[in-house]
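By way of example, what follows is a protein record of this kind.
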Amino acid sequence: MNHKFIYSTIVVILLGLGSFFYLWNGARIFYPELLPAQDAATVKAPVKELPEPATKKEVIAPPPIQTAQVEEGAALTRSGIIKFTNDYRILNGLPPLKENALLRSAAEAKVKDMFQYQYFAHESPSGVNVGELVEKTGYDYLAVGENLAEGNFENDEALVKAWILSPGHRANIVNPKYTEIGVAVGQNFWNGRLTWMAVQEFAMPASLCPSPDESLKQQIEVNTIEINTWFALLEAKKAELDSLSKTQWREYNRKVEEYNNLVVEYNALIEETKVLVSAYNSQVSNFNTCVK
């Protein structure tokens, strides 16, 4: 009898537990609002690392030099000035400069302009400066320098020596950045007297340093606009979630799922843009190092 009683008791208990779990699970099935509320996904902050600005083009233009000496038979030549300039660079452990046709064209234009409009300065009366003068020829540069001289120097060597004795002009001649040169000379009337003018255009061509990918920067800017738009939308949806009572679990969970799906896409765009920013900044860093 005792054993039968014990078995009967166990069966009753098991049936009772089974009924309880069945009814509880049934309640969860038919009344989903009894489910615990889901958590909203974490939104990553918008990209703050803006692309670094590339180094600006460098222009060096020391005050022009003049000589009051009057040398009989004074004559200047383009080839002679280049030769003595390169001799001094080699003497200082620097490679010689290569003559460039576009830089020569810029120098010739400068000599002609100074005689025509009777001025002697790096900037023309119309406001054209050294960089603009060189760019007009189609020459793309990272650094450019200009040396000017006026007067009846004895010869090319005497002129180059005069430039070397001037710290600013010497700095242009021995600037390690420069790899190309253009020179022009001319004799004409200036300030009522017959005189010579000489122009040196030094440059570091842009082709020496690969420029940062402009299309990459543009994509970053497009992504940033999209990110900021999404961020504002997600903030509004999060505020809507916060205003809902978590006792309304069915509605709340539906909103959370919708919000979380948007967050996944938003965060993926953030990560994609960070990769683009890192790549662009690396290109800019390499470019700036090259220019220096």
Summary: Strands lie at 58-60, 65-70, 98-99, 141-152, 180-190, 193-205. The chain has two domains: 58-208, 211-291.
